[in-house]
Automatic annotation (TrEMBL), chain A:
Domain (FAD-binding PCMH-type) ranges: 1-220
Matching InterPro entries: CO_DH_flav_C, CO_DH_flav_C_dom_sf, Diverse_Substr_Oxidored, FAD-bd_PCMH, FAD-bd_PCMH-like_sf, FAD-bd_PCMH_sub1, FAD-bd_PCMH_sub2, Mopterin_DH_FAD-bd
GO MF term (any one): FAD binding
Protein's recorded name: Xanthine dehydrogenase family protein subunit M
UniProtKB/TrEMBL annotation, chain B:
Key words, A-Z: 2Fe-2S, Iron, Iron-sulfur, Metal-binding, Oxidoreductase
Pathway annotation from the record: Alkaloid degradation; nicotine degradation
Protein name: (2Fe-2S)-binding protein
Record Pfam families: Fer2, Fer2_2
Gene3D superfamilies in the cross-refs: 3.10.20.30, [2Fe-2S]-binding domain (1.10.150.120)
Transmembrane stretches, start-end: none
Gene Ontology MF terms: 2 iron, 2 sulfur cluster binding; metal ion binding; oxidoreductase activity, acting on the aldehyde or oxo group of donors
SUPFAM superfamilies, per the entry: 2Fe-2S ferredoxin-like (SSF54292), CO dehydrogenase ISP C-domain like (SSF47741)
PANTHER family: OXIDOREDUCTASE WITH IRON-SULFUR SUBUNIT, OXIDOREDUCTASE, IRON-SULPHUR BINDING SUBUNIT-RELATED-RELATED
Length: 326, 213
């Protein structure tokens, strides 16, 4: 680990000032400290933001949910409002990492976490995300766990977050505060596909601070849930995952929110699946037909072709779990 | 005293496990630590840099006061120092173990303000005012913590390396209320890897301790 200076921000104002001068925010630190030890991350200054008042979970006026950036994963998952309104968020969180890590890591940090691509984490390997222009060792390497959607010539790394998949499905908004004031940006626009600049992962400006993630209100009753498929039963990143939320009224699906994880360079929203579901009556045949559209546009690599079929089956199963089989 | 074990700067402990003619693993690490400490402290704290406001910008260590197993401690640490290294190398509390040093094995699990965390990923300099509980702080004199006793009663370990982390994590698991079934315990204890494969008995020890409460 390289040496760094450390300050603890006593106020949001103080944090923003330190951030504007190039300080790197640290909240839970579970990704950042790990990557600093690997010398993938080499911040010169860490700004501890854990004392800032961003720990609230509140129901918005319209009936959505606002989760403060510093709410720890464990606390967000256990929060009665989160559990009641959006089980998909609780489930995604509780299927992530370990109890210890969830006690440390925060919601803001979770969506800022960096890929688990082993070549990214190995400073001796070629990686355009870590070292722009150096190449991508994963493209012809051990790419079994890598992305099949949203990839580019430069990068095929997946986004590792589970809860960000739920946020993508629910069309959440990221609240930011920066030197120029506050702004909001859709989750879908916040996390960037790699294109030719995989080193740029978030649409965040220097010194900007995530203050909250807001989930929009959705029609009720809403059934939702998260399914994660992985190489071991727990404490592992997703090979594939599916976040599903359905609003069924009068026997007809009126609203469908679906996204997949473990397969995309960003959490992968599935609008074609959603369109196939809306206006239809739940049935086995519907789940199968809708899930068939989940892997549209997939470009598998040598070792991850299995993800194409696995993704369809993951989505199909989760549609069945959430939507029932009537 | 300022400590840090930058892995890249420390040569692998080749002679560590050799017979008595070579250094023991513990003396080797202690020596490496002392050397690292001298270098860092000499460069940053020893001189007059702290008096110079411009140079203070580049100070890479900090003072932190925390309570460890009921004892208040104040120490100056290199900013890079993990809680795990602080406990083991500075305070001599070697019960917490370094397995992966990356948050992937749970051997370093301790309680910070009552919550189980990975001490390897916790920067010590951030712990001002916190209360840390390690395996050394669980027993009351000769009276073991019920979960410690349960690990013995259930024979819930072989090599014992993961055991301190398992026990601290088990205490967290019980406090959090995730002991409704063996399956639930397994899921909520999944952050602690046991290379010997004692999971069945570990789950039993946690289950029995939770049931007694």
């Amino acid at each position: 680990m390289y040496p760094f200076t450390f300050t603890k921000a006593a106020s949001t104002h103080e944090a923003l000032n330190a951030g504007r001068r190039g300080g790197r925010y640290i909240a839970g630190g579970t990704t950042l400290v790990d990557l600093m030890r690997e010398t993938v991350e080499r911040p010169e200054t860490l700004v501890d933001i854990s004392g800032l008042p961003l720990r609230e979970v509140t129901v918005t006026e319209r009936g959505g949910l606002r989760i403060g950036a510093l709410v720890r994963m464990a606390d967000a998952a256990a929060h009665p409002k989160v559990r009641a309104l959006y089980p998909v968020i609780s489930e995604a969180l509780e299927l992530s990492a370990s109890a210890q890590l969830r006690n440390m890591a925060t919601i803001g940090g979770n969506i800022m976490q960096r890929t688990r691509c082993t070549y990214f984490r190995d400073v001796t390997a070629d990686c355009n995300k870590r070292e722009p222009g150096s190449g991508c060792a994963a493209r012809e390497g051990h790419n079994r766990t890598h992305a099949i959607l949203g990839t580019s010539e430069a990068c095929v790394a997946t986004h590792p977050s589970d809860v960000a998949v739920a946020f993508a499905a629910l069309e959440a908004t990221v609240h930011l505060m920066g030197p120029d004031g506050e702004r909001r940006i859709a989750c879908a626009d916040f996390l960037l596909r790699p294109g030719s600049t995989p080193n740029r992962e978030q649409a965040i400006r220097q010194g900007e601070l995530i203050t909250a993630v807001e989930i929009p209100a959705l029609p009720r009753p809403l059934k939702s849930g998260y399914l994660k498929v992985r190489d071991r039963q727990s404490y592992e990143f997703a090979l594939t995952s599916a976040a599903v939320a359905l609003h069924v009224r009068g026997g007809v699906i009126r609203e469908a929110k679906v996204a997949a994880g473990g397969v995309g360079t960003v959490p992968w929203k599935l609008p074609a699946v959603e369109r196939h579901l809306i206006g239809e009556r739940p049935s086995e045949a519907l789940w199968t037909a809708a899930a068939e559209k989940a892997a549209e546009g997939a470009r598998p690599l040598e070792h991850n072709r299995f993800k194409v079929e696995l993704l369809k089956r993951t989505v199909e199963r989760q549609l069945r779990i959430v939507g029932g089989t009537k | 005293m300022s400590i840090e074990l930058p892995e890249s700067d420390v040569p692998p402990p080749k002679g560590a496990d050799e017979p008595s003619s070579g250094p023991t693993r513990r003396t080797f690490i202690a020596t490496s630590t002392a050397v690292g400490g001298v270098v860092v402290a000499g460069g940053v704290i020893g001189g007059s840099l702290l008096a110079d406001p411009a140079a203070a910008e580049t100070v890479r260590s900090g003072q932190v006061s925390l309570t460890v197993n009921g004892t208040r401690r104040t120490v100056t640490v290199d900013n890079r120092t993990s809680l795990l290294d602080l406990l083991r190398e500075e305070f001599g509390l070697t019960g917490s173990k370094k397995g992966c040093n990356a948050g992937a094995c749970g051997a370093c699990t301790v309680l910070v303000d009552g919550r189980r965390v990975n001490s390897c990923l916790t920067l010590a300099v951030r712990l001002e005012g916190t209360e840390v509980t390690t395996i050394e702080g669980l027993a009351d004199g000769d009276q073991l913590h019920p979960l410690q006793q349960a690990f013995i009663d259930e024979d819930a370990f072989q090599c014992g390396y993961c055991t301190p982390g398992q026990i601290l994590s088990g205490i967290g698991c019980i406090q959090e209320g995730h002991t409704g079934s063996p399956e639930e315990i397994r899921e909520w204890m999944s952050g602690n890897i046991c290379r010997c494969g004692c999971y069945v008995k570990i789950v039993r020890a946690v289950e029995q301790t939770a049931g007694r409460k």
